[in-house]
Structure formats: C-alpha cells, structure tokens
Design goal:
The chain has 223 residues and is mostly helical. It has seven helices and no strands.
C-alpha cells in the first residue's frame, strides 16, 4: 500500500507538470525539452526505487532510503527544471551541465546506499549461517538424548545439549576448526549413545563442553 501511495503522489506531480508544460509554454525549445526529459528520468528513478522493495530480502528496510533519495532528487529536478524552463536558455548546454552536476551527487549517494545494502545483506546471511550452526547441533543432541535408553545417559547428554544451546550464535573465522571438532564430538556422542559405557560417554561430553566453551571464549575475545 505504501508503494502505491508513493507512486501515486509522484505520478500526480509528473501529470501536473506535463499539463503545465504543454499548456503554458508556446516555444518548446531544445533547452526546455532537455529539462522535460530530465524530470521524467528522475521520475522513472523514483518508480524503480519503489519497486526495488521486493528485489532483495528485507527490501522494505533497504529500499526506503533509496526511495527517499530518489524522491528528493525528483523534487529538486522538478523545481530546478521548472525554473530553467522559465529562463529558457538559448543553448541546451546550460541545463545539461546543471543536471549532470545533480546527477553526479545523486549517483554518489546512491552508490553509498548500495554499498551499505550489500554489506548489510552479507552480514545477515553470515549471521543466519552462524545461528544455524548452533540450532542444528542443538537439535542433533536433543534427538540423541531423546533416543537414549538410560536415564543416566539422558542426563549426561543433557549437559552437552545445554552447552550448545547457550553457545554464542555469532562466530569468527578463528573458531572454524573448533566448530568442526564440535560436530565431530557430536558424532562421537551419537556413537556412544547406543552403548552402556557411561564413563566414556561422560568424558566425551566433557570434551564437547570444553570445546563449546573454548569457542565462546575465542568469539568474545575477538569482539
């Protein structure tokens, strides 16, 4: 709905401009046509920025700064273009130079927004991957615990489950090997869950908990 309202407001502005343009000016000179074309170009950028909402995940967050910048750019182009139409320069070079300056400023702002957007999306994907590491391993241990036959074994594995469930959901490259070791220990715990050797299971869970704590400590130190 917000996209429809935004486009509707911009469309009313461009329609009103065209009505005035073709009814007020008798001399449609080259400089006036340059202004007319430039204003329509900035209007197209507003429409494109509005429809970019669905182009990326969480587009409703990233698109609004672009919509705001494009809308301001359009309004400035509309005001400056109207003034230059009234002046009606003899050569289209003057409005072209003015509009190129505004375009350079807009592109610089837009590129900054795009760089911020790309960085934020990359960080979101990374964070989801890290959350998935903790979630999947917690689910594996939960399943192993539930399938454990003895109450003692369930209690031992519960300690491992509590450790990974409370682990840091963020991560850093320095703990990559520790995370591999954590997953290997879960495989080992799964193998031992079918045996009656509680002492080996307990020591394996102890090593697992130590690995989780080492991982969390390394992550906290890197912050």
């Amino acid at each position: 709905m917000n996209r429809i309202v935004s486009i509707a407001l911009q469309t009313i502005g461009i329609l009103g401009f065209n009505i005035l343009y073709f009814n007020v000016f008798d001399d449609l000179s080259a400089s006036r046509w340059v202004c007319w074309g430039y204003i329509h170009l900035t209007y197209a950028l507003v429409v494109a920025s509005v429809f970019s909402v669905k182009a990326v995940p969480n587009g409703h967050v990233y698109a609004y700064p672009k919509i705001a910048v494009a809308s301001i750019y359009f309004i400035i182009a509309l005001i400056v273009g109207a003034i230059m139409m009234i002046i009606n320069c003899d050569s289209p070079v003057v409005p072209l130079v003015v509009f190129l300056i505004f375009t350079g400023i807009y592109l610089k702002l837009y590129l900054v927004l795009m760089a911020t957007e790309s960085s934020s999306i990359a960080n979101e994907k990374r964070d989801k991957r890290y959350v998935r590491f903790v979630k999947l391993n917690a689910e594996r241990l939960s399943a192993i615990r539930d399938n454990m036959g003895s109450a003692e074994g369930k209690k031992i594995i519960e300690r491992a489950y509590d450790a990974i469930r409370g682990a840091e959901v963020t991560s850093v490259p320095a703990v990559a090997q520790i995370e591999v070791d954590i997953e290997s220990q879960i495989d080992r715990i799964a193998d031992l869950s079918g045996s009656s050797d509680m002492e080996t299971l307990r020591s394996t869970v102890g090593r697992f908990v130590d690995l989780v704590r080492r991982r969390d400590a390394e992550i906290r130190l890197s912050k």
